[in-house]
Write a structure and sequence with these properties.
Layout lengths: L1 H34 L5 E3 L6 E3 L4 E3 L2 E3 L3 H4 L3
Length: about 70
Amino acid sequence: MNLIIAGVLAPLAYLLLRLFFKSLVISFLNKVKAQSEVKEMVSCYECGVFIDKNDAIKKSNQYFCGKKECLRNV
């Protein structure tokens, strides 16, 4: 009987608890991320400056800042 508990039930309980706590942590992190006011940043393909993704100009899956030197090749 002890072999069944140690060999089957204990690993099963461990996996279930691990899944439960993992889902709690992921849920917490997603909630914090949704409430965060941190903006997503991207780097300019030409000069490497990081800018807000909403302010960037996207052209063929690459982001550019508003500088005319960077927009020259767009």
